[in-house]
Amino acid sequence: MPSLHYFAAFSDSRCIEGCDHEHATVASAVACISTAGGYVIAVENGQNRELNTEEERQFQSAMFGIETSPRPSLSTGWVGWPNLLDPDEV
Ligand SMILES: [Zn+2]
Question: How far away, in angstroms, is 34 Cα from ligand 1 center?
Answer without folding.
Answer: 10
